[in-house]
Design brief:
Layout (H helix, E strand, L loop, with lengths): L6 E9 L3 E4 H5 L6 H8 L3 E4 L6 H16 L8 E5 L10 H9 L5 E5 L5 H14 L6 E8 L9 H4 L4 E10 L5 E9 L7 E2 L11 H5 L6 E2 L1 H23 L8 E4 L4 H11 L6 E2 L2 H4 L6 H11 L8 E8 L3 E8 L1
Parallel strand pairs: 4-5, 4-6, 11-12, 11-13
Antiparallel strand pairs: 1-7, 2-3, 6-7, 8-14, 9-10, 13-14
Helix pairs in contact: 3-4, 8-9
Bound molecules: oxa(dethia)-CoA.
């Protein structure tokens, strides 16, 4: 398969809330330790959304930065794709709220639900839309406020998640730079291993269901871990195959930041050494759909990623969903 890009990133931005939750803070809430969390996950801190802040506020802040970085007017945005599983309300989409907040009134907007793989799903969908010729400036945002659906009585999950947002503006490629390939897959048979059972049609928010804490994240950590290692390794290898790139062509691997051990295993499978692997899990924890665009924005702003570099993105999440992308900066 050829690797001629149809869309490229012309701007990026990110945002994390001010409040920080440390491993030491968590030690006071549940039976855990800084040592356990760091050894098993690589996490030290995570940022937590303020009481008066919403998912759309975080997304809008990241989006506005990406628009400014692209040097375009908000009026030029003709499509907004938001990857999130922790939106503001049941409906309408969080994208509608973000559209209002940033004032992108000439855009079509919608959310996609693919959990931690959402940003890569968003890149694939946005690129396909740009390829139709109908859209010129597309915002793709990964945003999550998982702290709002985290059970701070469950030590198996509450140490893992943080909040934040990352955004990119995509435009038609110049033919050299841009998204070389994307790859997305799912396996709905494994939906029970990581989910929020409550609040949908299965378990509406009755007093009884809320008392049973069904509105919180449930995860079979060890099982998810095994599937994540396999699927992310496969996705990393697959994107190299689809693009014809070799491991040594990759300047940087940005893996979904769910667990340092999973990131290491993915890099190893793809033949990418540790110096070319971006890590910020220590600062943010697992921010689900925000994790990759947040890291991508940081890597661009820090100059870790430079013009002409190849970055490979790999993600895995609830569903299960997984995927990868290769981008020439
Ligand atoms: O983002 C979407 C994808 N998500 C992921 O990829 C997450 C995948 N899973 C993981 O990252 C890991 O499975 C966890 C970090 C969630 C857990 O690490 P683990 O090495 O798989 O631990 P475990 O679940 O096998 O538990 C080992 C022990 C258990 O105790 P026993 O049964 O051996 O006595 C747990 O009860 O660690 C215990 N434990 C804890 N101890 C201290 C579980 N959570 C904690 C905790 N603090 N927070």
């Amino acid at each position: 398969m050829k690797a001629t890009p149809t869309s490229m990133i012309i701007g990026s931005g990110s945002y994390v809330p001010e409040k920080i939750l440390t491993n030491q803070d968590l030690e006071k809430i549940v039976d855990t330790s800084d040592e356990w969390i760091q050894t098993r996950t690589g996490m030290k801190l995570r940022h937590i959304i303020a009481d008066d802040e919403n998912t759309s506020d975080m997304a809008a802040k990241a989006a506005s930065k990406a628009i400014a970085d692209a040097g375009i007017s908000v009026n030029e945005i003709d499509l907004i794709v938001i990857a999130t599983i922790s939106g503001d309300v049941g409906f309408p989409s969080t994208a509608c709220y973000v559209q209002e907040l940033i004032g992108a009134h000439d855009a079509a907007v919608f959310d996609i639900s693919a959990a931690c793989s959402g940003f890569i799903y968003g890149l694939e969908i946005a690129t396909a839309q740009i390829a139709t010729g109908k859209y010129q400036k597309v915002l793709v945002i990964g945003v999550e406020a998982l702290s709002r659906m985290t059970d701070y009585k469950d030590r198996n999950t509450c140490v893992l998640f943080g909040d934040g947002a990352g955004a990119v503006v995509l435009a038609p490629s110049d033919g050299k730079k841009g998204i070389l390939q994307t790859y997305i897959r799912s396996d709905g048979r494994l939906n029970q291993l990581l989910h929020v059972p409550g609040f949908g049609t299965k378990h509406p928010p009755t007093h009884e269901n809320v008392d049973q804490r069904l509105h919180y994240i449930r995860m079979e950590g060890r099982e998810v871990f095994k599937h994540a290692v396999k699927a992310m390794g496969d996705a990393a290898v697959k994107i190299l195959k689809l693009t014809g790139l070799k491991s040594e062509d990759v300047s940087l691997l940005i893996s979904h930041q769910a667990n340092l051990r999973i990131i290491d295993a993915t890099a190893k499978r793809a033949g990418i050494d540790a110096e070319r692997v971006y890590i910020n899990i220590d600062k943010y924890g697992n921010t689900s759909a925000a994790s990759i665009p947040l890291a991508l924005d940081e890597a661009l702003k820090e100059g870790v990623l430079k013009e002409n570099d190849i970055v490979v993105l790999v993600a895995f999440g609830a569903g299960f969903t997984w995927g990868s992308a290769a981008i020439r900066i």
